[in-house]
Amino acid sequence: MHFLALPVLSLLLGAASPGLASPHPQNPLLFDRQQAPIKYEVKKPPLDTDWTYKLGTNPWPEHPRPLLKRPDWQTLNGIWTFRKSDSSSAAAPPPAGLLDRETMIPSCVESGLSGLQELDAEFMWFARRFTVPEGWRAGGKRVLINFEAVDYESRVFVNGKELARHVGGYFRYSVDVTDSLAANGTDNLLTVWVRDPTDRQGSFAPIGKQTTRPSHIFYRACSGIWQTVWLESVPASGRITQLDVAAGSDGKVTIKAHSSVNGTAAEVEVKVMDASGAQVGSGKGTANTEFHFTVNSPKLWWPETPTLYNLTVKMGDDSVDSYTAFRTVSRGQVNGVQRPLLNGEFVFQFGTLDQGYWPDGLHTPPNYEAMVSDLKLLKSIGMNMVRKHIKIEPDLFYRACDELGLMVIQDMPSMCADGRQPNDADQAEFGRQLELLIEEHKSYPSIVTWIIYNEGWAQRRDGPPWPENELVQRVRALDPTRLIDAVSGWNDHGFGDFSDNHHYASAQCGAPFYSQPAGPHDSSRIGFQGEFGGLGMNTTIEHLWNVSDAIRDIPQTYEIHSTGDSYNHRATQLLNELADQITRYECSGAVYTQTSDVEGEVNGLVTYDRRVTRIDKDQWRKDIQKMYEEAAKRGGRAVGGNCGHVYYPRLNPGKADQPWRLRRSGAGQTKVFKMTEVFILQRKWVGLLWDRRGTNELQNNVNWR
User: Fold this and answer.
1) Which of 125-129, 189-193, 347-351, 558-562 has the lowest mean pLDDT?
2) FRET label pair with 46: which of 206, 244, 460, 528, CA 20 to 30 Å apart?
3) What burial class does residue 1 get, using C-beta atoms within 10 Å of its C-beta: 0-12 exposed, 13-18 middle, 19+ buried?
4) What is the pLDDT of residue 646?
5) What GO terms are given for molecular function (predicted)?
């Protein structure tokens, strides 16, 4: 699929003419060019973080697309100007010049980081001036403005000319602005009109948990330009718009380079490099056509050893840097039970429900460090997975999961969860945006599962036919390399790869018992605990989202404890109960609710401001390790996060039943094991020497799994 065809994107390169200067809304005698905007400063949110007041005016300076990097790019993040508007502005020409108030981009206008905290803005304008670097248009090169995400509808103008329209709050789009730039490339005016239909009459947009009326599990909305905006110089003769890359555990690389030129037969060259920069493979093919090649004996991507390989891809005058990892996600029987497989082995998946909300930025994390700190916490206690819940993150989130070794279960943001059912047009739009989710993210190695519906939210109930049947087929056609959880929680009609149960607080994972509205476990599919836990513990006001409605909702948290000891004792009970279900039943993975508090929910591993950690890390690490051990007894590959792994060597055929001993060099320490046993190795034993007892045969650098 052509990259620019993914969003609803119309390039209107003629017709429109620059708008005249518009009167200032408070004083019709003043025009925007004559009115200095109100200066930006962080507006104190109901709760801040350690990063809130340290961001400066150059937020998110990182290149935002790690899978498609060129050298000539420039961020447009920073200070923009803003004006709240009304519905009449939708058909009007853009305001001339800058606007009334400064704001920080990227941000949600409802957030403190925006400097605005506009809580009910449906229509709005954003504007800033920019300069195109010298040489970027030499030789006929083109200049793009890339938007990573704008919530929800947007129109883009450069120097008064409308160039693009887009619908969808989580997806990127690119606009070729070359022909509308000032002759010398300086003093260009970029203006963006935005509409956010959240909770507006008749709206059924896929916006997840956003609402203008927050309560309990639904949170403050995010409107506006909430992800990075950036300039890019690209070749005139055609450019790579997207790379689809899948690298399997057998070393086979499947790649498709989408070109901006339809029907081109341009040659595509790919080189694969390891971490040292050494080339380990290469392939050639044709643009817009899938082709294959093989890398011999690659190091595989595992949660404990998340090996990545760099790519360079050339097509004509264009060259981009990217990366991939060698791993295969599948489903199969292990000892008679349906299991999720990674590289052919059952890996028990355990992690948190991760909402991705921040008290100062809402959908937009304060910075990269803050975003990754959540993921590092999960790894530090041995988790190997994260469920990205009802939200799609910036691409750098998925790159971080690739690097850290966190498997990602990715939700499709839901439509309205107020009990209404979507009409045919709403359902079609949901399907279109589901396809965008898959297309834009299917090359990130860490993503292992797509979730289509959560707990029946806006899932049509007028079947059969059931909507998830057709959607599963569409997702499978777009991406046959991952598993699909058609419905997480309930309203399950037997489609997809998982039999998924939600039950708070205790789990019912792959078990012969269940509680409504969840249904009975289906042994023909993978038994999975899509949500459980949710233990709460209230905190002091300096760590709470200080909004009266949120504080009112705190008692709705599933189970609240008054002390850390009580909280952690109960958590151990729940985790051990889950371990018992792994032993007894068909439980293949579980999602604990949740990473952090969110507004009126106080059931995070950490508080909403990330300043207080509730969990006893050592105890959680032991309890999580026990799950992996129980899974190993059922045929699983018993690995965890970055500590407390269960290991066993991969031996040559015919040697697995022979006793071996582990020798710690220079320390005179030896342990003897039979290789058919599963054992826990302390750190001091990892990566050392094995020899076969009674012989001098020495095995160094054993391949650990």
Assistant:
1) 558-562
2) 206
3) middle
4) 35
5) hydrolase activity, hydrolyzing O-glycosyl compounds
Class of domain 240-316: mainly beta
Rounded mean pLDDT of 605-631? Answer: 98
H/E element, 577: helix 564-584
Length in residues, the chain: 705
Q: How many CA atoms lie within 13 A of 202 on its CB side?
A: 1
Q: For 303-321, b where at least 16 C-beta lie within 10 A, e where not — what string?
A: bbebbbbbbebbbbebbbb
Burial class (CB in 10 A: 0-12, 13-18, 19+), 353: buried
37 Cβ neighbours under 8 A, 6+ residues apart: 81, 98, 99, 100, 101, 102
Reported as a pLDDT band with limits 50, 70 and 90, residue 234 is very high
Q: In 10 A of CB 682, how many CB atoms?
A: 8
Handedness of CA 283, 142, 242, 321 (dihedral sign): positive
CB-CB contact of 78 with 142 (8 Å): no
Percent of the chain with pLDDT over 70: 85
Q: How far is CA 294 from CA 201, 315, 619, in A?
A: 53, 20, 44
Assess whether pLDDT exceeds 50 at residue 650: no
Cβ neighbours for 6, distance < 8 A, ≥ 6 positions apart: 171, 173, 435, 436, 439, 440
Domain ranges of the chain: 3-234, 240-316, 330-646, 648-699
pLDDT of residue 639: 66
Cis peptide before 152 (omega within 30 of 0): yes
A 10 A CB-CB count for 119 gives 12
- Residue 553's SS3 state is helix
Where is pLDDT greater, at 348 or 216? 348
Residue 703 pLDDT greater than 70, yes or no: no
149-182 per-residue burial string, b: 16 or more CB within 10 A, e: under 16: bbbbbbbbbbbbbbbbbbbbbbbbbbbbbbebbe
In the predicted model, is pLDDT for residue 241 greater than 90?
yes
CA 645/CA 464 separation, integer angstroms: 46
How many angstroms separate the Cα of 240 from the Cα of each of 138, 309, 609?
Answer: 19, 20, 40
Pairing verdict, β 219-220 and 210-211: parallel
Smallest CA-to-CA distance from 219 within 15, 86, 390, 473 is with: 390
User: Using CA atoms, how far apart are residues 390 and 410, in angstroms rounded to an integer?
Assistant: 8
Task: Collapse the DSSP code of 20 into the 3-class scheme (helix H, G, I; strand E, B; otherwise coil) and give the result.
Answer: coil
Burial class (CB in 10 A: 0-12, 13-18, 19+), 128: buried
DSSP conformation letters of 421-472: ---HHHHHHHHHHHHHHHHHHTT-TTEEEEEEEETTTT---S-SSPHHHHHH
d(CA 652, CA 702): 11
Whether the pLDDT of residue 694 is over 70: the answer is no
The region that residue 202 occupies, defined by phi over 0 for left and psi between -120 and 50 for alpha, beta otherwise, is left
Q: DSSP for 220-257?
A: E---EE-S-EEEEEE-TT--EEEEEEEE-TTSEEEEEE
- Token pair 């420039």 in the structure block, residue: 74
Query: Across the beta sheet with 689-692, what order do the strands follow?
Result: 669-674, 659-664, 689-692, 698-699
Task: Name the CATH code of domain 3-234 (choices 1.20.1730.10, 2.60.120.260, 3.40.50.970, 2.40.50.100).
Answer: 2.60.120.260
Q: Cβ distance 148 to 170 under 8 Å?
A: no
Task: Name the CATH superfamily for 330-646.
Answer: Glycosidases (3.20.20.80)
508-562 pLDDT, tens digit per residue, is: 999 999 999 999 999 999 999 999 999 999 999 999 999 999 999 999 888 999 9
Instruction: Using the predicted structure, report yes or no on whether residue 312 has a pLDDT greater than 60.
Output: yes
- What SS3 state is found at 575? helix
